[in-house]
TrEMBL record:
Keywords, alphabetical: Cell outer membrane, Ion transport, Iron, Iron transport, Membrane, Receptor, Signal, TonB box, Transmembrane, Transmembrane beta strand, Transport
Protein name: TonB-dependent receptor
Domain TonB-dependent receptor-like beta-barrel as annotated: residue spans: 246-652
SUPFAM superfamilies: Porins (SSF56935)
Record keyword Transmembrane helix present: no
Location(s), subcellular: Cell outer membrane
One of the Pfam families matching this protein, by short name: Plug
Similarity comment: Belongs to the TonB-dependent receptor family.
Length: 688
């Protein structure tokens, strides 16, 4: 606070400095007022969009040691993402939204250069050649589809120029862990054909001991690449062909047995005689073409294909005893096509209109049994999802100050489930969902640096099948979220201070939740079910202070109160006003970046961020609770020319918290996996 007061007191002395960022020679992240986003499928200033948006720039990714999307979103209010049972299985907490294991739909749409990435498996990829990450908070289904019920994560990669540019880094961290990355971009034919190529390699012995096995529980080896060919055939035509790959072999399904009475105690290491191993192969390809009709619109076509496969072998009794083992095969394959027309004519009226089609297939098979005996195999489960959608969104500026935005989307989805049990005729089931989504917002610019807005949006998460269930629990319905929001975006002190805040209220109908269900005459099943009604009031605020080109501060705070109002159909009054599990009610973050010359040759580059997560419940009974935790990360380096030598610290506070919980798995005992402990090391990087 004393430092902040001193900075504010010194404001007049620096009033003539530009609030703009990335002046020549500066490596500081861009000031919020200078950041351009494509949240509405067009380029515009983030401060002019009537949506709460957090932006992570390329320089922040480097300065803050952000390796994956999971790292990047830690700077976003109300949003917490943790590794669940393994890196491709995420536990998400955001405004009442959470994940549903492998079977359910991820609550965020992840988009890379305009291409939607299917499934949460692709959320684990390393950040390769990334220019900017935009986190749009609140339902974004109008433009991004049914997978954007909580929001959208819009990623743009570095665009090539006629000059060759690249960077590389190598690091060593405790574990030990060795990492290397490199990227290069430039022309093949100047002004016409360009390329991008990037790769990251990681070899990690892990930080979490397995008490009954020599191999650490969280070991991992992975290679991630992203490459692109970009053709600028004419002044009006751009075509991009991209490919991304991930191959990994990592630890997974490490779970420790913890008595419910000791749930909030110190972290417990797993003790499994069989090391959990998850082998993953991800492939994604896309072809994107943009053709501009001058003073009218840009026609965009996006064709995409992806395939993800995971094979897991693991302990099934979660103990040192050599009793049970399990395997899981899981494949997700998808093709999608989008056609979109986006206006580019000058004037007060701006619009988008388009259509979308996706054909997705998921296959799953598993075995479980005693070691040394023939395992029990579950039948292969095949699910196919065919989705068709039309959408439109338009904005009209009545005056220089007042703008209205409205949007509409309609999704049709046909689902097929086939239980391919070899001992009986294949069971084939069908279900169809139809769902409208909409959005309306009104923004008012009191002056060039202050905007107020109010919005309504409806989000949608599709229903599906529970492959391991039977009878009436074999399927579950869709989830809708009606979100009402008011907020403002502001800049002052010559745009050196940016302060944005919003309050929201979300009304869920049929919220999807993974829970145990007892059905008379059928049995007990852990399945995805629909909670009849949930409400979530909350607020968020973000602050950035940039007194000079060399120094910046940022902070955020988020609060959400996700309460059950009506539970399952057979018992609607149960757990009334209990908190939805896995939702952090309060988050806060403070960070700082420094880039200051030490001499004519050397500069000091430093980043630090502290984040606070409030208490969180892990069961619907609200009996299992984790106390608040604080996390600290830092990276401090010396730069000489294009070279930087940095010291890196991750989770320096050594805070340990559950990342995945099997609540009451053994009656009065639960199964837990924890986040990774403190890690530190050194990194050498170069730009060229």
């Amino acid at each position: 606070m004393a430092l902040l007061m001193g900075i504010l007191a010194a404001a007049p002395a620096s009033a003539q400095e530009s609030a703009g960022a990335n002046a020549v020679g500066s490596d500081m992240p861009a000031a919020p007022g200078d950041i351009t986003v494509t949240a509405r499928k067009r380029s515009e200033s983030v401060q002019k969009v009537a949506d709460p948006i957090s932006v992570v720039t390329a320089q922040t990714i480097q300065n803050a040691d952000l390796r994956t999307l999971q790292d990047a979103v830690r700077l976003t209010p109300n949003l917490v993402v943790l590794d669940g049972l393994y890196p491709g299985y995420k536990t998400v907490s955001f405004r009442g939204f959470t994940t549903l294991g492998r079977e359910g739909e991820f609550p965020f749409a992840t988009v890379i250069d305009g291409v939607v990435q299917p499934g949460q498996m692709f959320f684990q990829q390393e950040l390769v050649n990334v220019q900017q990450i935009e986190v749009l908070r609140g339902p974004q289904g109008t433009l991004y589809g049914g997978g954007a019920i909580a929001g959208a994560i819009n990623i743009t990669t570095r665009q090539p120029t006629n000059e060759f540019q690249g960077n590389a880094s190598i690091s060593w961290l405790t574990g030990p862990e060795g990492r290397g990355s490199a990227s290069l971009t430039g022309p093949i034919i100047k002004d016409k054909l360009f390329f991008q190529a990037g790769v990251t390699v990681d070899d990690n012995d892990g930080l979490i001991p397995n008490e009954a096995n020599r191999k650490n529980a969280d070991f991992g080896k992975s290679v991630t690449s992203r490459s692109a060919l970009i053709w600028r055939g004419t002044e009006n035509l751009n075509v991009a062909l991209t490919a991304s790959t991930t191959d990994s072999r990592v630890g997974g399904l490490w779970l420790a047995s913890v008595a419910d009475a000791d749930f909030d105690g110190p972290a417990v290491n797993p003790s499994e005689n069989q090391a959990g191993i998850v082998r993953t192969q991800l492939r994604a390809f896309s072809l994107k073409a943009d053709y501009t009709f001058p003073d009218f619109a840009t026609l965009t076509s996006v064709s995409a294909y992806s395939r993800g496969h995971e094979y897991t072998t693991a302990d099934a009794d979660y103990s040192a005893a050599d009793l049970n083992t399990q395997t899981v095969h899981y494949t997700d394959e998808a093709f999608s096509q989008e056609l979109r027309l986006t206006s580019n004519a000058p004037g007060p009226f701006k619009w988008n209109v388009g259509g979308y089609y996706q054909n997705e297939k998921r296959l799953e098979a598993s075995t479980y049994g005693a070691v040394g005996e023939a395992p029990i195999s579950t039948p292969d489960a095949m699910r196919r999802y065919k989705t068709t959608a039309i959408f439109a969104q338009a904005s009209y500026a009545f005056t220089d100050k007042l703008e209205f935005t409205g949007g509409f989307r309609y999704d049709w989805e046909k689902q097929v489930y086939v239980n391919r049990d070899t001992s009986t005729p294949a069971e084939r089931l069908h279900q169809t969902f139809k769902q409208p989504q909409g959005k309306a917002s009104l923004s008012y610019k009191a002056n060039p640096d202050l905007m107020f807005y109010a919005s309504y949006s409806r989000g949608y998460r599709k229903g599906g099948f529970n492959p391991q269930a039977e009878g009436s629990l074999l399927s579950y319905g869709p989830e809708t979220a009606d979100n009402f929001e008011i907020g403002f975006k502001s800049q002052f002190w010559d745009r050196k201070i940016t302060f944005n805040a919003a309050a929201f209220y979300t009304n869920f109908k049929g919220q999807q939740y993974s829970t145990s269900r007892v059905v008379e005459g059928e049995g007990i099943f852990t399945v995805i079910s629909n909670i009849e009604k949930t409400t979530v009031p909350g607020f968020e605020a973000e602050l950035t202070i940039r007194p000079t080109r060399e120094l910046s501060f940022n902070g955020s705070v988020g609060y959400s109160d996700a309460k059950i109002k009506k539970f399952l159909p057979e018992d609607p009054t149960a757990y009334h006003n209990n908190t939805i599990p896995q939702i952090y009610g309060f988050t806060a973050m403070i960070g700082t970046d420094l880039d200051v010359p030490l001499s004519e040759t050397y500069s000091l580059v430093a980043h630090g961020d502290w984040s606070h997560r409030g208490s969180v419940y892990w069961d619907v009974q609200n009996a299992l609770k984790t106390s608040p935790k604080d996390f600290f990360n830092a990276k401090v380096g010396i730069r000489r020319g294009d070279w930087t030598l940095s010291f890196v610290g991750r989770n320096l506070s050594n805070a340990r918290t559950p990342a995945a919980v099997g609540a009451h798995a053994f009656g009065t005992t639960s199964l837990l996996s924890y986040n990774e402990p403190r890690q530190y090391g050194v990194e050498l990087g170069v730009k060229f």
